[in-house]
């Protein structure tokens, strides 16, 4: 540009700009002067923009006054890269901040590694990331700011507590996993021997807790883990701790073992060849095993599991544990249009039926069906699975279901168009009620906490006599307890909200073959109805609506 000269000082570190106000054309502003430098052979130098703004103003004033001046300013300089390391997250991470060189030099790998060590980064440094940062610095324009995490510590991992490992399966687990004939085949009719143990049989082993994993910070400081705890081995009814091994639980009596939520017990077992008018009804405090059929109008009541190796027809079975029917169950509707069934199965645990029709099923766990379930009523707090648990391919139609997890089957609905109704509302509404109750409690505690905190802060600033100071200390302790309660309630509300989201992700239908028309899925006022036949797929709830997704 006429009237403007760029002069590199002898040292080569600084660039000067000389402007002859009489010869320069026009009235160049700071942006034009910056472009002039960037487009010159000195374009990689660091531009001193304030100097260029001053020069542009001086040129403007000289032009206005029609005066002749020789303006000269230092406008750019050669700068090496700027490197900083910042330790974050309680010294668990180190961040590299690198401003690339402007006409100067970027560091090489040995120099950068030495800088990292000088910043007290002793462990967890990634040489691969350092090299990647240098490679990026050499390819980016001058003055580019690069940020990258280059070192990570290892968090300590607390030891896990001892575990309770059952040595015998629950009856329902055995039913759902048929015996293997070979590596690739199973016998669906061979469900193994009924699980009954003799006195002295090992039932459960307590494993030792782990010590955890030692961690470290990027400074090289060791983080010691908290060892796991020994959980108390509590003998349930019908069990005892081995006199030779304090970590082994043995059966004290002969009966049916049961493992649930870390507890093991043995139910005394009543075994019969069938239940009919000849045997009479059964009411037993323990487990019941029926090696035969249960005939019409008979009643079985047990505090433990009920296992029936036969067929059930128009009978009532109530269990404090699981109900397992290895063949089938059949019932009748009392009247057309009513949901009264002659066969009623009620369990505190889960219920398994090989195939069923005309049943009223109520349980707190899952409902699993071996092959087919039709024209029945189901109320459960778990899932409904028709077919093998690892490949639900059975048939489900003509039922009214209230459950709290997914319904899985091969074919859902029927060609005849008989309706299948699935309602997921109860479990969701229960969660909403709990969330509302906890949020109301949280608001009440928060209001009290804020009010008390304000008063405590005021009191702490005052000089108090000794007798009053003791009362204040007691008040502070109560305030701290209230603070802990507030923290617990906040976590509880967060957990419940997460449970609500997980509930919506879990519910729906999963079909491995077909969904027929007439199938209805409901969550409060949101309903999906199959108006035609669908191929295999998934009905799921997303963004306040039901959707069908082929698979």
UniProtKB/TrEMBL annotation:
InterPro entries: FapA, FapA_b_solenoid, FapA_N. Residues 84-261 form the Flagellar Assembly Protein A N-terminal region domain. It comes from the Bacteria. PANTHER family: POLYMERASE-RELATED, RNA-BINDING PROTEIN KHPB N-TERMINAL DOMAIN-CONTAINING PROTEIN. This is DUF342 domain-containing protein. It comes from Bowmanella yangjiangensis. The lineage of its organism: Bacteria, Pseudomonadati, Pseudomonadota, Gammaproteobacteria, Alteromonadales.
């Amino acid at each position: 540009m006429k009237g403007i000269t760029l002069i590199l000082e002898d040292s080569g570190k600084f660039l000067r700009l000389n402007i002859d106000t009489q010869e320069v054309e026009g009235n160049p502003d700071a942006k034009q002067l910056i472009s002039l430098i960037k487009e010159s052979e000195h374009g990689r130098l660091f531009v001193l923009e304030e100097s260029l703004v001053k020069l542009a103003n001086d040129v403007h004033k000289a032009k206005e006054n029609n005066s002749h001046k020789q303006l000269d300013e230092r406008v750019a300089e050669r700068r090496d890269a700027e490197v900083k390391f910042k330790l974050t997250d309680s010294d668990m991470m180190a961040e590299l901040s690198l401003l690339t060189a402007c006409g100067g030099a970027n560091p090489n790998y040995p120099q950068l590694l030495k800088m990292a060590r000088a910043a007290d980064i002793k462990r967890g440094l990634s040489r691969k990331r350092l090299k990647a940062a240098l490679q990026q610095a050499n390819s980016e324009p001058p003055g580019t700011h690069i940020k990258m995490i280059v070192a990570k510590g290892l968090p300590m991992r607390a030891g896990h507590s001892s575990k309770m490992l059952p040595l015998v399966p629950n009856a329902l687990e055995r039913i759902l996993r048929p015996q293997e004939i070979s590596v690739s085949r199973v016998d669906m009719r061979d469900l193994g021997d009924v699980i009954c143990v003799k006195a002295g049989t090992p039932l459960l082993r307590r494993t030792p807790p782990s010590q955890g994993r030692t961690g470290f910070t990027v400074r090289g400081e060791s983080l010691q883990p908290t060892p796991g705890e020994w959980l108390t081995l509590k003998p349930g009814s019908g069990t005892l701790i081995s006199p030779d091994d304090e970590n082994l639980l043995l059966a004290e009596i002969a009966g049916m073992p049961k493992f649930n939520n870390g507890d093991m017990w043995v139910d005394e077992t009543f075994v019969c060849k069938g239940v009919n008018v000849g045997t009479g009804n059964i009411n037993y405090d323990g487990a019941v095993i029926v090696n035969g059929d249960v005939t019409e109008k008979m009643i079985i009541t047990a505090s433990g599991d009920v296992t029936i190796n036969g067929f059930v027809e128009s009978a009532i079975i109530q269990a404090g544990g699981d109900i397992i029917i290895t063949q089938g169950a059949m019932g009748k509707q009392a009247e057309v249009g009513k949901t009264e069934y002659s066969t009623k199965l009620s369990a505190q645990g889960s219920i398994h039926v090989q195939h069923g029709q005309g049943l009223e099923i109520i349980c707190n766990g899952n409902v699993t069906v071996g092959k087919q379930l039709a024209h029945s009523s189901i109320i459960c707090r778990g899932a409904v699975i028709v077919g093998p648990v690892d490949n639900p391919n059975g048939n489900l139609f003509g039922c009214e279901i209230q459950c709290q997890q997914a319904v899985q089957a091969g074919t859902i609905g029927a060609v005849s168009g008989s309706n299948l109704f699935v309602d997921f509302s109860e479990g969701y509404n229960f969660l909403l009620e709990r969330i509302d109750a906890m949020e109301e409690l949280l608001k009440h505690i928060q209001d009290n906490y804020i009010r008390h905190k304000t008063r405590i802060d005021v009191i702490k600033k005052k000089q108090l006599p000794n007798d009053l100071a003791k009362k204040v200390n007691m008040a502070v302790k109560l305030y701290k307890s209230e603070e802990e309660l507030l923290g617990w309630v906040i976590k509880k509300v967060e957990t419940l909200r997460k449970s609500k989201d997980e509930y919506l992700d879990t519910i729906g239908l999963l079909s491995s073959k077909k969904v027929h028309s007439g199938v209805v899925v409901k969550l409060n006022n949101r309903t999906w109805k199959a108006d035609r036949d669908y191929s295999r797929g998934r009905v799921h709830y997303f963004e306040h609506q039901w959707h069908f997704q082929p698979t």
